[in-house]
Amino acid sequence: MSDKLTDDEFKTTVISCPLNAYDCRDIQICEGSLQQHFQSEQHQRSLAEHAKYIDNTADADTTDTNSNMEDEHQSSLGLYEKLSSLAQYIDQTRNTLTNINENLVRHLISSFPQHINATQEMLSIEASSIDAVHLNETVLQQQIFSLKEQVNNGYGILPQERGDIIAWKITNVHEKMYDAMSERQTSIYSPPFYTSPTGYKLCIRLYLNGDGTSRGSHASIFLVVLRGEFDGILKWPFQFSVAFCLCDQRTILESNGTREPKHIIGCFKPDTKSISFQKPTLSVSIASGIPKFCPLDELNRSANENLYIYQDTMIIKTFINFNGIDRKMLDFIFNLNLALPVHIRQKLIEDEVARHQH
C-alpha cells in the first residue's frame, strides 16, 4: 500500500493549523484549503501573536544575558578589588621588609666596629695567654736544660749570699749561638736568684742572636721577674735600676790585671707601668731590658781575638742598684773582686762613692 495520498484524499484530509496554540487550535482545516486558511484574518492574527511571543522571548533572553553579564561584571569587579588589595598588601610587606633590611644593615654597620674591637680584645687576651703559656713552657725547658748543666758543672741556683752582684757563667756558648741563629732555641735563662734572703726572685734572659729588631745585629739581654716566696711583703712594682756587664775575660786573664778590661756594660730603669714589673700573677713575667746589649761582631771574633768568649765560656754580671748609686760607679763595681765577702765589697763601694762626692 502506498504512503502517498491521492488528490481526492489530500483535498478531504482534515488537519490542525500550525498556529493552533494561537487561536487556531480549534479550527479544522482540509489540507486542500490550507493555503486559503493561511491568508485568512484569523490566521494572520495568530501569526501576529506568535511573532509577539517570539519577540517577548527574545527580550527575555536578552534580559537574562544582560543579567548574566552584569553578574560576571560584578564578579570581575570583586576579583579586581581582591587583587588590588593583595597587590597593596604585597607592596606594604615589601616596604616593611625593605625597612627591616635597611635597619638591620644600619645596625650591623654601626655595631661592626664594636664587634671588631671586642674580637680584637678577645684575640689579644688569647694571644697573651698563649704567649704566657709558651713562655712558661720555654722557661721550664730552659730550667731542665739549666739543671742538667748545673749537674754537669757542679753549681745550682745562685746563692742568696752573693748579694747585689750576681755572676752567671754560660758554657758551650758557640753551640748556644748556633741554636739561636737557627731558631732552635732563641734564648737562654740564667738560674733564678733572690736579691736578698727575703727579696725579689729574678733571672736573666739572654738572646745570643738578638730579639726583635736587634735580631742578627746585637745580643739582647733582659731581666725576668719571677713569682717568689715573699712577694706578699715586697713593694711593687719593681722599680730599681739594673745593670748588666759582659766580662772581658781575655784581658783580665792574659794581662794579670795590668790592663784595663773592656767590659760591655748596659743598664736600664724599669718602666713601673709595664706589666713586666708588677707583682707576678704567673710563675714568669714578661722579660724586659736592653735589646741592643752587645754587637754580634764582638761575639763572632776568632777565638784568639775574642774578649768575651773565652774557652767557649761567657760570664755576665748583674747589679741591682738599690741605693741609687751613680752609673759612673758601674765600672768600679763590676771590677771588684767577687771573691771578697759581701760586706767588704759594700764598704769599698761606699768609700768610692764618698771619694767621688768630695
Automatic annotation (TrEMBL):
SMART domains: MATH. Residues 163-320 form the MATH domain. GO terms for biological process: regulation of canonical NF-kappaB signal transduction. GO terms for cellular component: cytoplasmic side of plasma membrane. It holds the Pfam family TRAF-mep_MATH. InterPro entries: MATH/TRAF_dom, TRAF-like, TRAF1-6_MATH_dom. PROSITE patterns: MATH. PANTHER family: RE66324P (PTHR10131:SF138), TNF RECEPTOR ASSOCIATED FACTOR (PTHR10131). This is MATH domain-containing protein.
